[in-house]
Amino acid sequence: MERKFTFIELFAGAGGLSEGLIRAGFYPVAFIEKDKNTSLTLKTRLAYHFLKDSGEYNLYRNYISGNINRDVYYNQIPEKIINSVINEEINEDNLKSIFRKVKQQMSMLDVKKIDLIAGGPPCQSYSLIGRARNAYNMKNDKRNYLFKFYVQFLKEFGPEMFIFENVPGITSAENGKLWADIKSHFLKSGYSMDFRLLNAYDFGVLQNRKRIIIIGWKSEYDLRFPEFEKDKNVEKYRIKDLFSDLPSLRAGDKLYTGKYTSNPSGYISEYGIRKDDDILTLHLTRSVNERDGRIYRFYIESWLKERRRPEYDELPDELKTHKNRKIFRDRFKVIAPDLPYSQTITAHLEKDGHYYIHYDINQLRSISVREAARIQSFPDNYYFEGPMTSMFRQIGNAVPPIMAEKIAVELRKMMVMI
Length: 418
Known about the structure:
Layout: E1 6-10, H1 16-23, E2 27-32, H2 36-54, H3 57-64, H4 70-75, H5 79-82, E3 85-86, H6 95-108, E4 116-119, H7 128-133, H8 147-157, E5 161-166, H9 177-188, E6 191-199, E7 210-218, H10 240-243, E8 254-258, H11 266-270, E9 280-284, H12 290-306, H13 369-375, H14 388-397, H15 401-417
Parallel strand pairs: 1-2, 1-4, 2-3, 4-5
Antiparallel strand pairs: 5-7, 6-7, 8-9
């Protein structure tokens, strides 16, 4: 029988990375995530996998369709599955307590050891944008040093390998001193590591999303960072292939459950975004005021007529509200239907959708929750918990599952070699 390698995920987020690991045959033991709504998303997805494997998928369909509430849904799932999610912030005060809870979970699941630790600390303080906005406090931002807790988990559980994901800015933060510190801590804890700057588009995700991926292994192993073959097949698809089967909405419309308007596009089918028995959920949009609606129209027309993305200063004067035209130069942006990939989806979607304007001038809105999830390569049967703003944040912070799965397949090959 093929062995399932075990993993725990730190700073787990909504589960994009773990979704890829599970698809590649890894077995989830525990997730540590501080946000309540995001933790519920993880529980809902773990329950989905349990029900799918148990042949009871209809219970999941009843839940996401709104026929039963969350308590009824969770009560049908074994505690050892639901309790895999530890909804706590990792800090000095509760680190040992979290260690104990992970070990209790290992005992409940009859797991003897952890093979892999996955995850990436919150990345806002490492990002170039974050530094530009708050350069003075960069050095004192505690989030910069959350990697030290990651190292403590390596020391406590001694996995064979780890995977650590973050934004490209992590290598240049504090003039590279932080990056040197991270590498030093991994080495001192008994692990060799290597990293690459990888783009989600090269893995088949219709998004220009670059991330640092660190893969580490115990120092005694003779391993190398895997080579990833670029997905050439994705080049035949365009952004419009992501949205073609979704109902039209106006700004502020919220379709919690609904029906698709057509068969899925080639991309949606081929990359597993939509299955035959899927239910459309969470096609939710945010409201847009009259001025922003006029701005959206201006930007959509500029792309459709001129294939151009104007700068903020090109707006008609009556639509400009910001005096600092340099910072807000790129504030509004259309998701272009005829490009091979979208701009990077980020957690800023939680605040507004100005950087993610839908290309259909008849809809005049920013992208919906489901559209954002599709750009991130989440399948349509992935259900996000919490208010709409939280859903957008969860999606923006996630690792695209398609990218995660292809990385996880190579991680598994490395594991077999140990």
